[in-house]
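Example (one chain per record):
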Amino acid sequence: IALPSLRLLYLLDELNNPLITLKSIGHQWYWSYEYSDFNNVEFDSYMMPFNKNNNFRLLDVDNRIVLPMNNQIRILVTATDVIHSWTIPSLGVKIDANPGRLNQTSFFINRPGIFFGQCSEICGANHSFMPIVIESILI
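Predicted structure:
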């Protein structure tokens, strides 16, 4: 059992060099982000209150994540209180945010646009009010 497992672990090891590292911290009931590669730029992202001019009801946020397209992106995810899940279905990214643990994944955005997601873990009464919005731009 050990020999095939060690071979698979070696093959699954990621050896990419990401352009940007984004740290995402789940709170009740919002997300905090840090661009740690750029002098620790930090911001909170809350759901936009509902109004008639907002076309993306329950999906839009006040501070979007802005990431460049055609580059490898690494995301580090953690939480401060309960288990959350950072999910962007259209990018194929889903990673759990556990308190006291730092999880890592990477993804590649190959087209410009706005990508929506939200917490997909049942983390409490308002977990459906934790949207995630990524704006992909061409640099």
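Caption: Residues 2-12 form the longest helix (11 residues).
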